[in-house]
Amino acid sequence: MVPLPRDDLGDDPVDVTANDAFHWVPLHDNGLRERMATITEWVSSARPQAMVIDVSVEVTTLVRLLGIPVVVVAMPGERTDAAHTLAYRIADHIIAPWPAEAGEPGWLQPYRHKTTYVGGITRFDGRTRTTGRAARTQVLAMFGAGGSTVDGAAIAQGRAAVPDAKWDVLGGSGDSWADDPWDTLCAADVVVAHAGQGSIADIAAARTPAILIPQERPFGEQAATAKVLARQNLAVVRTQWPQPSEWPALIDEATRIEPQNWRRWRTEGAAGRAASVIERVARRRSTDGACP
Where does the Glycosyl transferase family 28 C-terminal domain lie (predicted)? Predict the structure, then answer.
């Protein structure tokens, strides 16, 4: 592992988008300069056959300028800005971590020839689903580390609205966290979560009914994902934290959705399909005349 310096060390960042060409390239930022230098030095010494870039347009551009094939991971939302367009244009291949059946965003259509929809990627792929249900309804409120507007007061309102249910909370603004929430996720009768790609894939792998409350993210990422899931009858979606009186009906609605519908998110084998794409790009480009 190569630790990268922070790229936001400046107190007063200037021209962070380079006239809207990028997302974050502040002038004279020592952290940004050191980060890019670290990546360049690693590429020079390791000489990779390909690199996978998840979210950084800037790193995608740098690596491609160094002559390395890049595989870019697409993200939901409206990615029509100049920076994203640049990244998708120069990518050797694009991996979309959702099923093709979920729909093709308009902005990905020009790159259809080099895009593979692999399904939801989760670390729980292949894990045996634990079984068993408690007599009391189990509600899991699960929020990742990407930021949440849900606080303890909101959770308390939910608990009070369904006193017959047992609520567990993982992540969010609380202090609870689990490195491996698999058993808790499988044991839940319903999970309340945001609509990030990782959380959705984990929930789909566990086949757990879900109530999703998308959070505000750049380019409408979570809102776009939640809209697809609602349309495909995979989860109950609300745009904001429900009022206390809504909880009993929401939990009932979520648990009436067939859990096996989650198979349509295609988590089984998704990581392997992504790995195959990356390997093909690396092998193909390594035989195109490049030096080993």
Answer: 186-237
pTM more than 0.70: yes
- Cα distance between residue 209 and residue 73, in whole Å: 27
CA separation for the pair 108, 93 (Å, rounded)? 12
138-265 CATH: 3.40.50.2000
167 forms beta bridges with 139
> What mean pLDDT is predicted for residues 5-31?
91
Residue 206 CA to chain centroid, in angstroms? 17
For the beta carbon of residue 272, count every other beta carbon within 10 angstroms: 13
Sheet containing 166-171: give its strands across: 166-171, 138-143, 190-193, 210-212, 236-237
How much is the average pLDDT of 213-219?
Answer: 90
pLDDT one-digit tens code per residue, 28-71:
999 999 999 999 999 999 999 999 999 899 999 999 999 999 99
Torsion of CA 151, 155, 157, 162, to 10 degrees: 170
Residue 172 has pLDDT above 70, yes or no: no
User: Residue ranges per domain, the chain?
Assistant: 30-120+270-286, 138-265
Domain 30-120+270-286 CATH assignment equals 3.40.50: yes
